[in-house]
Structures are given as C-alpha cells and as structure tokens.
Design goal:
single chain; alpha/beta; Rossmann fold; 6-stranded parallel sheet; 6 strands; 34% helix; 22% strand
Length: 180
C-alpha cells in the first residue's frame, strides 16, 4: 500500500497582505522539509488548491491563487482544485488515491477549522488511515479564539479518533527511515 501526502491550500494569497496566516513561515518551512523526505521515501504527493470567490485571497486566476513557490509541486504531482472545504467533494481525490493503492494519507496545510477538519473527517469516513501533522496546519484568529487555540482544539478533536497526530519532527524521522 502507498502513503500519500495531501497538501491543502498552501496558496500565495494566504501568506501575504495585512493579515497573513498564523505562523505561515514556520508552516512553509516544515512543509518544505516534509516534502523533501516524502519524495525521497516515494510517497505520493497531492496538492489541493482552493478556488476562492471574487476578491478572496485565493481567487481563481489571481497571484494569490497560485501554490506558494516555497512548496511548489513537481511536474508529475497532481493538483486537484476544489470549491468547498471537503477535498473529496466534487473532485477525483478518492478515485486518485484508490488508483495509487493508497490506504494511508498524511494531511497538512490550511485552514484548520474548515478544509483540514472537513477533509480529515471525510477521509476517515471513506476508510483511510489518516495522520494529521499537528504543527503543520494553520488558520487565522476568530472573533472568540486565537489561531493557536483553534489549532489546539482541532488537534484534540481530530486526534485519536479521526486521525493519528504526529509532529513535523516525528514525521520527518518516520519518512527518513522509510527510504533508508
């Protein structure tokens, strides 16, 4: 069986402007390291690219819609586009994963309480073994909670039932032993 790394919505528009994503630089650096090790371990890498609405930071065709250049896909790595928080809804993600004989997926990216949460729950419901990189997803603060509180809350809700939690460092170690 194959392990697939799902990279959700790491698009330029989420990292720039007057209110960039919480700890965006750290998220990009961790993702870059994980990508390097995942590729060495022959994991499949799949990018999910959100299609935002008019004037959204990830509006289709805008500079902000592009995958962030620090984590660019390689030529043969698929980019699936979505219009909802669920990366499986109205996409061919499930079909693609099955064609790769994937049973385990690793999830990281944006936005914790929307796309990360919804995609993980759907993957779990479809029978995938899901791992969430607990320090490699992010969001913006809400009216009532800081970004850090939202991330911690979702790690506690998703971890142990819908997904296994791992840190970026733990995942890097695991991936390095796969290709050793």
């Amino acid at each position: 069986m194959t392990i697939a790394l799902l990279i959700l919505d790491l698009q330029v528009g989420n990292f720039v402007g007057s209110a960039p994503i919480f700890q965006g630089d750290l998220l990009l650096e961790n993702t870059k390291k994980i990508l390097y090790e995942a590729r060495k371990a022959n994991c499949k890498v799949i990018y999910i690219q959100n299609i935002g609405g008019k004037d959204d930071p990830d509006e289709l065709g805008s500079e902000g819609w592009e995958i962030h250049p620090k984590v660019n896909p390689q030529i043969k790595e698929p980019i699936l586009q979505k219009t909802t928080p669920d990366s499986f809804h109205k996409t061919n993600l499930d079909k693609l994963l099955k064609s790769m004989s994937t049973n385990e997926i690793i999830v990281l990216g944006l936005q914790t309480e929307y796309c990360i949460d919804t995609t993980i729950r759907q993957a779990f419901s479809l029978g995938y073994d899901v791992t969430l990189v607990k320090d490699c997803h992010s969001t913006w603060p809400s009216k009532n909670l800081s970004a850090s509180q939202i991330i911690d809350h979702h790690n506690s809700i998703l971890g142990g039932y819908f997904a296994k939690l791992t840190s970026a460092d733990e995942l890097l170690l695991k991936l390095s032993t796969i290709h050793s």
